[in-house]
Specification:
Strand 5, helix 6 and strand 6 form a beta-alpha-beta unit. The protein has one domain: 3-Layer(aba) Sandwich (Rossmann fold), CATH 3.40.50. It contains 10 helices and 8 strands. The N terminus is likely disordered. It starts with 7 loop residues before the first helix and ends in a 19-residue tail after the last helix. Strands 1-2-4-3-5-6-7-8 form an 8-stranded mixed beta sheet, with helices on both faces. By secondary structure, it is an alpha/beta fold. Helix 1 packs antiparallel against helix 3. The longest helix has 25 residues. InterPro entries: AB_hydrolase_fold, BD-FAE-like_dom, GDXG_lipolytic_enzyme, Lipase_GDXG_HIS_AS. It comes from Microcella alkalica. One of its GO terms (molecular function) is hydrolase activity. This is Acetyl esterase/lipase.
Length: about 350
């Protein structure tokens, strides 16, 4: 499938949702929390500065199926996904590559239904994919590995033949996309998919501002670290075996999926020192990787502008070649520098 540039209205919609969504997250978190928690949430919100704001009514159109349960595939009770397909192809008669999108929020907050991630799901559909927006269990009530298990379950669900037929998914052509904590999760699950006995290997992974090595100082931002320790169920990073287990940096294997690693050069919440060693290690393992360093202090989806959205869409179209051209029967009817 040839690379297709994202249309300008879709890119504007993506900018609108990321800008307004980041502001909404900050306001909601600030109202709900007190003391240190409130200060932490406000700092996280501030890490994604506003871009130009466009009307949310300009969201790319998609046919959305909400709250599809995936517990039968190994996710926690009540965990669901939303499915977005191009509105002019809502019948699911044509199998399309799927892109699973995983929200951030320091593993402790966030939701697939948030305007930012709803729009990303719609944008993926408008770009020719089946977008699947994934929820997962949140820390501290559900520490590692609960979230990773839920994302793995979402992949298993999307690769299931019945699911594929119902939603028009090509189960042999799949990518993962995640921002911040979601970037950590999709990197981990994508790399582990190579040797998994639960899922087939995915084709590609896109990360935005992901914490990739939870053992080193560049992940130990005073704002971010308390949430990270809650997620790992550890009192101290220096004595935390789960930090290694939960780090994509230590899950790299030959034969892993292609990666597009995106990070802001001036980001403070998750410093760029998380991205460059990871990209180099991927390349050393023989994995195709593009490292996109953006001259910005923005965090995660706050990095998305026209140029980056087009680059992500092109990367996904290049990597996700359809495995077959047959219709589905409806049930019942930049290289890193060395």
């Amino acid at each position: 499938m040839p690379a297709r540039a994202l249309t300008s209205p879709a890119a504007r919609a993506l900018l609108a949702a990321t800008a307004i969504g980041a502001l909404a997250v900050g306001l909601l978190a600030g109202c709900a929390a007190t003391g240190q928690e409130a200060a932490r949430d406000q700092t996280i919100a501030a890490a994604a500065p506003e871009s130009a704001v466009f009307p949310l009514s300009a969201q790319p159109e998609a046919a959305i199926t909400e709250d599809v349960p995936i517990s039968a595939f190994g996710a926690g009770d009540g965990v669901t996904v939303d499915v977005c397909r191009p509105r002019d192809d809502a019948s699911a008669a044509e199998a399309r590559p799927a892109v699973l999108a995983v929200h951030g929020g320091s593993w402790a907050r966030g939701d697939k239904a948030h305007p930012t991630w709803r729009t990303i799901c719609q944008w993926l559909a408008s770009s020719g994919f089946v977008g699947v927006s994934v929820n997962y269990r949140l820390a501290p009530a559900h520490p590692y590995p609960a979230a990773a298990e839920d994302v793995t379950a979402a992949v298993a669900w999307a690769q299931d033949p019945t699911t594929a037929a119902e939603h028009g998914i090509d189960p042999e052509s799949m990518a993962l996309l995640g921002g911040s904590a979601g970037g950590n999760l999709v990197s981990l699950v994508g790399l582990r998919s190579v040797a998994s006995d639960r899922i087939e290997a995915v084709d590609a992974v896109v990360t935005l501002s992901a914490p990739l090595d939870l053992t080193v100082g560049s992940a130990a931002n005073p704002v971010f670290e308390p949430s990270m320790l809650d997620y790992l169920a550890c009192a101290d990073r220096a004595e935390c075996d789960a930090a290694i287990e939960a780090s994509p940096q230590f899950a790299i294997v030959r034969g892993g999926p292609d990666f597009l690693v995106v990070h802001g050069t001036e980001e403070e919440l998750i410093p760029v020192g998380q991205a460059t060693p990871f990209a180099l290690a991927l390349r050393e393992a023989g994995i195709r990787v593009e490292l996109a360093l953006v001259d910005s202090s923005a965090h995660s989806v706050g990095l998305l502008d026209d140029a980056l959205a087009e680059r992500i869409a092109a990367f996904l179209h290049e990597r996700l070649q359809p495995s077959t051209a047959l219709a589905l029967e409806q049930p019942g009817t930049e290289e890193p520098a060395p």
